[in-house]
TrEMBL record:
UniProt xrefs under Pfam families: DUF1256
Classification via InterPro entries: Pept_HybD-like_dom_sf, YyaC
Keywords: Hydrolase, Protease
Top-level taxonomy: Bacteria, Bacillati, Bacillota, Bacilli, Bacillales
Native species: Bacillus thermozeamaize
Name of the molecule in the record: Spore protease YyaC
SUPFAM superfamilies according to UniProt: HybD-like
């Protein structure tokens, strides 16, 4: 009998907010800047967006990756797009390639996850590695220094069917918020670290951030 998948709650949550909150992009960008700024001069930044467009729910990662590729944030290398997805079948190979090409990379892992019905649409930024595939009982290598996920649907029963029948319109909107916040964060990081110093004041929106929210039962889809 295989061990149950490890829930995301094992990692410290830095920010958690619904994708349709009016301040979601700003709040997530602030959390990303706080997490990434200490590493600006020591590490190369890389976004690994995991998933496949063969399943609407699991398309979140490659949608984020493709939108980032169009936005082209300075200082960020992107792996995982709609044209060149990173998924269960090639994840191990891609991770090995990343470690060879980018040995000092700070990896932001992006993926969809399944969770409780009340948490659908919740975007989370967490410290530590992502475990892709846990939501559909796949054993895949953990990856990343930061995990950036969104609950695309409810889990616990017929996960593959649930992912296949997740509304694409909602997933696209989730991806837009996540990609937008990453782009905004790297725009600010570039200005703060490489040009004129801390031009951007990171105003506190702590009331919008809920790092202690209940995340039991949320698992990455991979």
């Amino acid at each position: 009998m295989r061990n149950p998948p490890k829930p995301f709650a094992s990692n410290q949550t830095l920010c958690r907010i619904p994708y349709d909150d009016a301040n979601a992009t700003e709040v997530l960008a602030q959390a990303l800047v706080r997490s990434l700024l200490p590493h600006v001069h020591q590490r190369e930044f890389l976004c690994l967006a995991i998933g496949t467009d063969r399943s609407t729910g699991d398309a979140l990662g490659p949608l984020v990756g493709s939108q980032l590729a169009q936005l082209a944030p300075q200082g960020l290398t992107i792996y995982g797009t709609l044209d060149e997805p990173v998924h269960a079948m090639n994840l191990k190979e891609q991770i090995e390639q990343i470690h060879r090409r980018h040995p000092n990379a700070f990896i932001l892992s992006v993926d969809a996850c399944l969770g409780q019905y009340k948490h659908i649409g919740m975007i989370s930024l967490q410290e530590g590695s992502l475990r892709p595939g846990a939501g559909v009982n796949k054993r895949l290598p953990e990856v990343g220094d930061l995990s950036f996920t969104c609950v695309v649907n409810a889990g616990g029963f017929m996960e593959y069917f649930v992912l296949q029948n997740t509304r694409l319109a909602h997933v696209i909107k989730m991806a837009q918020v996540m990609a937008g916040s990453i782009h905004l964060a790297f725009t600010r990081l570039h200005r703060m670290a490489y040009k004129d110093g801390p031009l951007v004041t990171i105003q506190s929106l702590d009331k919008k951030m809920s790092p202690k929210g209940d995340q039991r039962g949320e698992f990455s889809t991979g």
